[in-house]
Each structure stands twice: as structure tokens, then as C-alpha cells.
Amino acid sequence: MSDGFYGADLVQLKQLASAMDAAGNRLQSQLIGLDSSVSVTPWPGPDADKFRQDWLASHSRLLRGAVAFLHNASKELSRNAEEQELASFAGGGSLPASVISVPGLPLGESPTPRPDDIEGKSAVDIKGWWEALPADQRQAFMREYPVEAGNTNGIPFNDRVEANKINAQNRIDWLKEHDPEPQFNRLRMDVGYPGRFAAEHDAWEQRQSGHDYLQSVVDGDVKLAAYDLGNNSIVEMIGEYKAGTSTIITYVPGTLTNEASFYGGNPQSVSRMLVDADKSGGTVAFVYKGSDFPDGDPLEAFVGEAKNDEFVAGSSPVLKDFQAAVDLEKPSVAQTVGIGHSWGARNLMGSETNGARYDKLIALSGAAMPPGWVADPATDYSTYTYPDILLTAEANGLAGENFPMKDPAFEKHLYSPPGDDDWRDHLSGDNHTLIATAGSENDIAMRDVRKEIFSD
User: Fold this and answer.
1) 181: which DSSP letter?
2) Cα gap 248→234, rounded to integer Å
């Protein structure tokens, strides 16, 4: 160039990288709010169903792609800026302070590993990459990229838990600073506005109700093995995953499970009971919601998504990948147990069709098998249920062609419900929920589950 200027203006390049990253964060926050609004807005009918399907299948994915593009562009700009600095140094300039005298690193190498280092790699390769990093670089990666560190299969779960403390704190900060309470606008008094406002306010209250739970994560009282709202993912780890672990449970709750479900502890109750039942301390449980679940409008969730083969085909490979990460840390003598309630059993069996395997698979009022499922001869299958609305629907061909209480691979346990046993129990939603609880009314069923898992 004739004006004597070569390369980029480094200050402006770094400012652009920072702006890109900030824009990505803002767009991700807006996407989270839109996802919530789309799911809770009371709008029945075929037009609403089509809009929600289009949102999930296309529009929200485009926005997630834009978020990913902004973050990746920010990282690429930062990398280019560093390369420009190093090139200037090679041409006689001064070496920037950020790459001077970093112990244990070659001259000019960035002290912080980047998400680019693990992009496209298998969990096995990521595990090897992570273990080869010095401790200070692991800590730096968790500080700089907590979402990637807390949600990448292959990074050890105890490190993921530490990274997700940061993600939980970031979420608390966002709820405080960027999620004001919706205010009723008396000037917007069209016929549907009061209902829309009520749904918006309910969604806000639901988000804000997570503060105490998230603070427990930050304090270390609750451990999250995954926490990524952009991918509708939250996985709680109960117990310790260590060299002496003898039983690893992956518990998949059912239809309508969302992040807010975790705040009250209902999806965790069976897993917590099972972990506490092992007095040796050898049991760890992962309460898993690692992807989209059928958790929107109840009618759509139960009648549409939970029965939809394409929906489970999208969720089960994610569970398979998570289980592969679980297996990477599994002591050789430990057993793996998959427990699924309702649609959660369908998701577990879908993960089997994608290559996951479990020593035991337990269905609690389990939904129908996904297409292509074949029982693994090395797995022990069992199903536990009361007479309930799902079993009645399955028996009458309304909820899939094959299901655990019909399939010969499953050892079957059918219990009498508490109170009077009459025809209404066969249409009961309460009985469907009861089988996945740890209270006294379900103690006989849970005693049998404990016996199966721990052989006592």
C-alpha cells in the first residue's frame, strides 16, 4: 500500500470482535425470551400449531445460527488480531504483553485454549485434549468459555459442574438486569390482550422463580452437568462421580419437563432417593433434560410431540452423545442404569437405536418404543406402572404400536393404585405421575426398583 499502512487497525479489530460477541449475547437473551413467549402464548388452533412448528423447525434455528455466527466471528476476529500482532513483532515491532513470558507455552501461543480447538472432535478426542492441558489453561477455558466448558461431552463432569456455576451466575445476573417485570398497558385493550399479558407475566414469574435454584448451583449445593438455555438443556448431577462409583443412573423425566420443573425438585425425587439408598456412596445420578422435550402447550406436547417419531429422532442422538460421555468416565466394574418416565423411556430407547447401551433399562409408565428399536440382549429391561391414562391409550392402540407393558423383553410390574381401584384409575393422570415419585404412596414400586438396581 502506498500510504505505508499494512494489515488491520488492531484496536478497531478488537473492538469489532467485542461488539460481535456482545451482539451474540444480546441476541441469545432475546431468543430465550422469544422461545418462552412462543410456548406460553395462549393461541389455539391450526394456525397456532403451524406457527409453533415453523418456529421450532426453522425460525428459532436461524436465530441460533445467527448467535453462533456472531460468536464465531468474534473469535475469528480476535484470532486475526493476535496473528497481526505477532506478524508485527516478526517485522520488528514489540511483542504484545498478552503473549510475553507465558510459562510452559511456546513463544506467541495464546495462553487460553479456544472452542475452535474442540470443534468437530469426538468426546474421546476432547477428553484427551482436556487432560493434556495444564491446570491453569483448563481454569482459563472455564472462565472464558463457560458455556462450552459446561456442556461439551468429553470434558469431565466435575469440571463441567464448576463451569456451570459461572453459567448459573450469568443467568442470575441476566434475570436481575435484563428481565424486568411486564407492566399491564391499559391502552392495549384489544380482546386478546389480557390473556396474552397474563401468559407473558406467568412466563416472567416462572423465569424469575429460578433464582434460588440457580443460587444453589453457584453455592455448590446443586451440581449441573449441563446448563445451556440456547439448546434447552439442563442436567443435574446428584451424588459424586468418582473412581469408586459402582452405579450410574441416567434418569430421563417425561412430557412437560422444562427448566422450571427442576426448581421445585420433582424430576429429581426418584434419583435423589436412589442415590441416598446406596449407603456406600457409590451411586451417581444424572437427571437429564439435554435437548428439546415435549414441554410446550399440554395438548400439543402430549398429542403431538410426545407421539411424534421425528421429535424423538431429533432428541435421542443428543442423549446418546451424553451417555457416551458418561461411559468415558465409567469405572470398569460400574453398572449403567437408564430410567425413563413416560416419554423419557421413549427417549432412552431412542438413544439405544443410536448406539447407547445400558446394563438395565427401567420404564416408569413408559411410552411406546420409537421406530427401529430392538431390545439389546445384554440389557435387562423392566417396566413399572399403575393403571393410568397412558396404559389405557396404549392398550387401545392410541399411543403407539408397541410399548413396555406389551413387549416381551420387559419384566412387567403392575401395581394397584392407592385408594379404591375402579374404572377411573384407568383414565388417571395422577397415577401416571405417581409412579415417578418417591413418596410413601409409591413406596412399594420404588422398593422393587431399588431391589432391581442394587440386587438387595
Assistant:
1) P
2) 18
- DSSP single-letter state for residue 43: -
CATH number, domain of 390, equals 3.40.50.1820
Three-state DSSP class for residue 355: coil
Q: Which tens digit of pLDDT belongs to each residue from 126-167?
A: 999 999 999 999 999 999 999 999 999 999 999 999 999 999
Looking at the 3D structure of the chain, how many domains does it have? 2
Residue 84's domain spans which residues?
1-111
CA dihedral 167, 168, 169, 170 (to 10 degrees): 50
Cβ atoms of residues 429 and 388 within 8 Å: yes
Give the pLDDT confidence score for residue 246 in this predicted structure. 96
In our burial notation (b when 16+ CB lie closer than 10 A, e otherwise), range 265-300 reads eebbbbbbbbbebbeeebbbbbbbbbbbbbbbbeeb
User: What are 64-88's pLDDT values in tens digits?
Assistant: 778 778 777 777 777 777 666 566 5
370 Cβ contact partners less than 8 Å away, ≥ 6 residues apart: 309, 312, 313, 316, 346, 349, 350, 353
